[in-house]
Amino acid sequence: MTESTITNKTFDEIKIGDTASITKTLDRNDVEKFAALSGDMDPCYLDEGFAGKHNSGKLIAPSMWSGLLTSALLGSELPGPGTQYVSQSLDFIKRIASGDTITLTMKVASKEDETGKVDFDCVCVNGEGETVMTGAASVIAPREKISVERTEGPEIIVKTFNKYENFVQKCSVLDSPLTAVAHPCDESSLTAAVEAWKEDLIVPVLVGPVEKIIKIAKEHGLDISGLRVVDAPHSHASAAEAVRLVREGECEALMKGSLHTDELIAEVVKSDTGLRTERRISHAFVMDVPTYPKTLIISDAAINIYPDLDEKADICRNAIELAQMMGVPEPKVAILSAVETVTPKIQSTLDAAALCKMADRGQIKGGILDGPLAFDNAISRQAADIKGIKSEVAGDADIMIVPDLEAGNMLAKQLTYMARAESAGVVLGARVPIVLTSRSDSLRSKLASCAIVALMVHARKPIKS
């Protein structure tokens, strides 16, 4: 038979003393898959900080992981397809750590002709030859010869979100900023504000129709008795009043409620009563992508539709400052286009080249810029190497500057709905940071947005001598 098929051993073909083995190196992905399927979330398996204190610095595996190898061997090799599992008894002798190479060997101990039962002895050893598990298993072996095509198992994507928790944890030792929440007049926006308050991320000041806000809170069991509520008759008035509270120093940050983004931003950008600075206002998605090793900032995908070179320069400056406030001292900035070569027919490649030269001349500071870069070589070192791109940014970007709002919005939503990413949203370049999320965003995303804004407020405060 070829390697493309799996063929079983029937009861009659199995002999006492027959053996089969499987070797596998345990990695974090295996542990996360086990946790996702079993619900076993012991921090010994998943939290490197916890493991550093309690497990000699190494993540360990659930002991039952070696039991999965037993099942795999019985079902795919000896006896193979058609096997009926009867019982299993395992003794776990030594812990398995992430990175260990484990070999499981199963040996036929006895057979029962009448029932078709086959008993196996099991032993697992690590790469040093130490026994980590022993045991026994019993199956009903197939009587019929079966040969099936070997197929790859279903892909399991473990949605491991842990990047946002770092921001929330940092906020635990900071003062929560007073945040004007403009028109929190639906369950989603009011819940986000209240939960962010409970998590000590912000102290919301609710701005909108008082009776409506109180009614929504009662309907959904939200306790707002400890919060200030500022009356405003409708969404336009809510936006104006929330901006006024910030402009006059009563609040340190701003948060969008259930009103439309345009309503809030229109008040923010007013020259006489808004929150504008000399810097162009821009939006940033702070994305937690399960398949990318670090937090990824995408800008601008919500405010500037077709930014010119000057506007893109400010978008870069805003994003770099955001990354620094989030704890990245010198963020790597990928200026995206469809190609990685400067092409006069594609304006975004010209803008990318100009932005990089502006960085070289000190007009854009604090980050390492490179572009134009196509998306593949911005996030994949392998793709960049294949194309011969030598770059500090390629394959390791912290920030992606997109050509225009359409490209950025589609990129962010593709990551959200196809790569199972989550996205926090903030507005940059105003006098204060602004939480700007979508009604469809998860509560986790909204809390992350509040945490990031809280970090920004804290970073802007003068250092006390």
CATH class of the domain at 279-429: Alpha Beta
Write down the overall mean pLDDT.
Answer: 89
The second-level CATH architecture of the domain at 279-429 is: 3-Layer(aba) Sandwich
Helix coverage percent: 25-40%
Quick one: overall form? elongated
**Helix- and strand-based class?**
alpha/beta
β-strand percent reads 15-25%
Instruction: Give a count of the beta strands, DSSP E runs of length 2 or more.
Output: 18
Distance between the ends:
77 Å
Strand order across the largest sheet: 10-9-8-11-18-17-12-13-16-14-15
Protein model, in words:
α6 packs across α15. This protein has 465 residues and is an alpha/beta fold. It is elongated and about 90 Å long. The termini are far apart. The protein is built from 15 helices and 18 strands. The strands form three sheets. The chain has an eleven-stranded mixed beta sheet, sandwiched between helices. A five-stranded antiparallel beta sheet has the order 2-4-5-6-3, with helices on one face. A two-stranded antiparallel ribbon has the order 1-7. The longest helix is centred in the last third of the chain and has 18 residues. Among the domains are: 142 residues, Roll (Thiol Ester Dehydrase, Chain A), CATH 3.10.129; 151 residues, Isopropylmalate Dehydrogenase (3-Layer(aba) Sandwich).
Short description:
Helix content is 34%, strand content 23%. With 465 residues, the chain is an alpha/beta fold.
How does the SSE layout of this entry go?
Blueprint: E1 5-7, E2 19-25, H1 28-38, H2 43-46, H3 48-54, H4 65-76, E3 84-92, E4 101-112, E5 117-125, E6 131-140, E7 147-149, H5 163-171, E8 178-182, H6 187-198, E9 203-208, H7 210-219, E10 228-231, H8 235-247, E11 253-256, H9 261-268, E12 282-288, E13 296-299, H10 309-325, E14 332-336, H11 347-360, E15 368-373, H12 375-379, H13 381-386, E16 399-401, H14 405-418, E17 422-428, E18 434-435, H15 443-460
